[in-house]
Design a protein that fits this description.
The longest helix has about 35 residues. The chain folds into 2 domains: about 70 residues, no CATH class; about 35 residues, no CATH class. The chain is built from 3 helices and 3 strands; from the N terminus they run αααβββ. It has a 3-stranded antiparallel β-sheet, with no helix packed on it. With about 110 residues, the protein is mainly alpha-helical. Bound molecules: zinc ion. Zinc ion binds next to loops.
Length: about 110
């Protein structure tokens, strides 16, 4: 997802920092801190990348909808809202009341 070169750079930096921590801190603490860095760094990178993508999305006007759909849980795609009973379903007729009146819900 995010820039692989940047990831490797951060990985190398975190490796150097974790080796430094091994020298400064006693054994269990140094290892724990190193592991924390290896877990936190990629998360931090991804968070920064996602917020940057969201910024681009606002510029083009379509990114927000794309991410909104993604956060609904993958395979759902476009959902429809029944205009009669407000039930959310996957299209066609409403499974609750059978009405075909619906609008797309992004
Ligand atoms: Zn309905």
């Amino acid at each position: 997802m995010f820039n692989y070169k940047t990831y490797l750079l951060f990985l190398g930096a975190s490796l150097a920092i974790s080796i430094g921590l091994q020298m400064i801190l006693p054994f269990p603490y140094g290892l724990g801190a190193a592991l924390a860095i290896f877990i936190v760094f990629p998360l931090f990178l991804r968070k920064r990348y996602m917020s940057r993508m969201r910024g681009y999305g606002n510029d083009s006007g379509t990114g927000g909808g794309f991410f909104g759909m993604g956060s609904q849980g993958g395979s759902a795609g476009v959902r429809y809202v029944c205009l009669v009973c407000n039930n959310k379903h996957k299209g066609g007729s409403c499974p609750r009341c059978g009405s075909k009146m619906q609008r797309a819900d992004f």
